[in-house]
């Protein structure tokens, strides 16, 4: 039995991790600020939060709160973060403050009790890659930069080879792909990962960074319009509104179920072979946004609700990113939940919760700032 702190433990990923750690018999403490954008303005602890975990309402940016939460702790999972990519492009200070400086704060307190803490696992993100890896028939593996606005305005959605201009196909993205953080959110995630690993290596504190791909599952904040596409589409569909598809809907992502993410975290906690390294955590399967949309409409029993394909685009969006999961497979992880099963669970849960559809409002906000065109 270990004494474990989960920062952001009331959130989507953190709360599932807490459940699993409690189930394994660990003593778990949660530090969470109950961010209103995620948890609503009531300031109430979510109903799903595990009763057997200790809960501390506090801010990762506060030395006092973090000191209180870290008392007697042996293992830290750092999941607390602001997570809206688009929003990070104008709430710059807030994202840097919570994600980067919050991590700095956590690390300083960890150093104060560095002999008690045995392991640190930090939630990183595929966003730090920017575009995924691609393969050109003529030139081999290439790493294109983001598409330019001009290219997007021409509705020329697919990437071209940076060397020979031919259209290129997505290829699996491995951990050694050069990083290309293209949003403030991504920059702060890269900061979190690098700060934790650098401190860990310098002080001999075993640290692991897990680069989550597109995580989905129950407890996603359906009323948060700045979050991932599965939650956004769910709130549209539940309210009988057409999901809005950017580009042509054939852009793809690697969707990984939250329960698989939890298993990767448990492995990182116990495996010495993972120390001081970064790992992709994805499914290894590409799914298009149109497929996500159709599947959610079908499972919600709203097949007649056709998506609105506006051929607009979000500035800074990547086209494809698919995880190469061979590195984490090598230390014993394989995703267990198929996209089909995962979507079924998401919708079963989604039917039981209320979802306010704030998507249109958020889209307008992004459009006014020139971030949707
Ligand atoms: C980004 C981050 C990722 C983060 C995730 C959720 C990058 C590269 N990755 O992923 O780390 O976990 O946000 O915050 O920045 N879409 C629509 N209609 C909508 C909403 C989205 O068509 O209403 C499309 C987007 O244009 C995009 C795809 O769905 O092509 C996925 O979007 P999203 O879920 O926001 O995730 P990413 O941008 O992949």
How would you describe this protein?
By secondary structure, this protein is an alpha/beta fold. It is 35% helix and 17% strand. The protein has twelve helices and 17 strands. The strands form five sheets. The chain has a seven-stranded parallel sheet, sandwiched between helices. A three-stranded antiparallel sheet has the order 7-6-8, with no helix packed on it.
SSE map:
Elements: E1 3-7, H1 12-23, E2 27-32, H2 36-39, E3 54-57, H3 63-70, E4 75-78, H4 92-112, E5 119-125, E6 134-136, E7 140-142, H5 149-153, E8 169-170, E9 172-173, H6 184-203, E10 207-212, E11 214-216, H7 229-238, E12 244-245, E13 252-257, H8 258-270, E14 277-281, E15 286-288, H9 289-299, E16 308-309, E17 322-323, H10 326-330, H11 339-350, H12 359-368
Parallel strand pairs: 1-2, 1-4, 2-3, 4-5, 5-10, 9-17, 10-14, 11-13, 12-16
Antiparallel strand pairs: 6-7, 6-8, 13-15
Helix pairs in contact: 1-8, 3-4, 4-6, 7-9
The structure holds uridine-diphosphate-N-acetylglucosamine (UD1).
């Amino acid at each position: 039995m270990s004494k474990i702190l989960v920062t952001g433990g009331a959130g989507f990923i953190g709360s599932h991790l807490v459940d699993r750690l409690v189930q394994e018999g660990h003593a778990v403490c949660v530090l969470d600020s109950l961010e209103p954008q995620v948890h609503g303005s009531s300031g109430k602890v979510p109903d799903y939060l595990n009763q057997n975990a200790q809960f501390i309402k506090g801010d990762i940016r506060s030395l006092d709160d973090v000191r209180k939460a870290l008392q007697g702790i042996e293992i830290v999972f750092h999941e607390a973060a602001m997570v809206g990519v688009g929003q990070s492009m104008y709430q710059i200070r807030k994202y840097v403050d919570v994600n980067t400086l919050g991590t700095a704060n956590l690390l300083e307190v960890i150093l104060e009790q560095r002999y008690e803490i045995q392991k640190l696992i930090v939630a990183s993100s595929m966003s730090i890659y920017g575009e995924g890896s691609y393969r050109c028939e003529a030139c081999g593996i290439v790493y294109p930069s983001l598409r330019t606005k001009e290219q997007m305005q021409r509705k020329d959605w697919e990437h071209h080879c940076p060397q020979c201009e031919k259209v290129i196909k997505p290829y699996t993205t491995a951990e050694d792909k050069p990083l290309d953080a293209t949003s403030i959110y991504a920059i702060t995630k890269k900061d979190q990962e690098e700060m934790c690993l650098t401190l860990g290596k310098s002080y001999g504190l075993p640290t692991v960074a897990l680069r989550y791909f597109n995580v989905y599952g129950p407890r996603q904040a359906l009323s948060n319009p700045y979050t991932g596409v599965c939650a956004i589409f769910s709130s549209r569909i539940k309210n009988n509104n057409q999901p809005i598809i950017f580009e042509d809907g054939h852009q793809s992502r690697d969707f990984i179920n939250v329960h698989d993410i939890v298993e990767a975290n448990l492995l990182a906690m116990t495996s010495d072979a993972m120390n001081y390294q970064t790992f992709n955590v994805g499914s290894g399967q590409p799914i298009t946004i149109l497929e996500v949309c159709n599947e959610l409409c079908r499972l919600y029993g709203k097949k007649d609700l056709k998506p609105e394909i506006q051929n607009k685009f979000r500035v800074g969006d990547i086209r494809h990113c698919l995880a190469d999961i061979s590195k984490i497979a090598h230390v014993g992880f394989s995703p267990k939940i198929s996209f089909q099963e995962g979507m079924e669970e998401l919708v079963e849960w989604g039917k039981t919760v209320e979802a306010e559809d704030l998507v249109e409002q958020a889209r307008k906000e992004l459009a006014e700032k020139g971030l949707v065109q």
